[in-house]
Write a structure and sequence with these properties.
By secondary structure, the chain is mainly alpha-helical. The protein has one domain (3-228). It contains nine helices and two strands. It has a two-stranded antiparallel sheet with strand order 1-2. It is globular, with a radius of gyration of 18 Å.
Length: 236
């Protein structure tokens, strides 16, 4: 397998994990608290690899929960053609950014870090592999985001009929816990989405290592107003 494909897959997975663990569960839904030094490192990582503020990502996601499957939902496959939601995650996110508080300024040094990383890959692997890395990274990362927003709102079981979305347990692992999308909408502040949630063991290990504070860590904890609150970090 070409080295560019391997690196692109690795960076896409790492970025998806940071998005899910930090931006989604910690910032958007306050399922647990992140230690300040860890949060600072994850902020930098997200700025470098995604190019936006983690709190802005969280604020846009809160719009999705607040207005799920209505015309105000930033990326509902019931209000837009599903293919648009599947392939247009970046465009839909950029459009929704105008509806949330202004992002914090880009931290100093993040563009320089990105430039150094790309330059390193260029020197070591060459232009073709750099382009492969970028293409694989973008396709895989945006595909995960698009699949979560599309499949999770169209197919599966509905154990919580009053909540949007559907549960497809077999998709929980490749979609980082979002196979339980209906359960997540019913209990958005739960640290664990369901029995096959692959993020849950990582959270347990991170808590034991002192990187995060899980609190009660329950799967049925209520939202406690997180979907309507302002997108402030929950660092301890």
């Amino acid at each position: 397998m070409p080295v560019g494909v391997v690196i692109g897959l690795a960076t896409a997975l790492a970025t998806a994990l940071v998005t899910e663990i930090y931006c989604h569960r910690a910032l958007a839904h306050r399922a647990f608290r992140v230690k300040p030094r860890v949060a600072s490192a994850l902020d930098t990582f997200f700025w470098v690899f995604v190019g936006t503020d983690p709190e802005t990502w969280a604020a846009v996601h809160r719009l999705h929960h607040r207005y799920a499957d209505t015309p105000k939902d930033p990326h509902s496959p019931r209000e837009r053609p599903p293919l648009t939601v599947l392939l247009g995650s970046a465009y839909l996110f950029a459009s929704a950014k105008r509806r949330v508080p202004a992002a914090t300024p880009r931290p100093r040094g993040t563009l320089a870090i990105r430039t150094v990383i790309i330059a390193f890959y260029f020197v070591v692997f060459g232009l073709a592999q750099v382009l492969t890395i970028l293409a694989v990274h973008l396709i895989c990362y945006l595909s995960i985001m698009g699949m979560v927003n599309t499949v999770g709102h169209l197919y599966g079981r509905k154990p919580h009929p009053e909540s949007p979305g559907y549960d497809l347990a077999w998709l929980a692992i490749p979609l980082l816990g979002h196979g339980y999308h209906n359960s997540h909408h019913a209990h958005p502040a739960a640290a664990r989405t369901g029995p096959l949630d692959p993020i849950w063991p990582l959270l347990r290990v991170s808590a034991k290592a002192g990187l995060i504070e899980l609190g009660d860590g329950g799967t049925e904890r209520s939202c406690r107003g997180c979907c309507g609150a302002s997108p402030q970090p929950v660092q301890s």
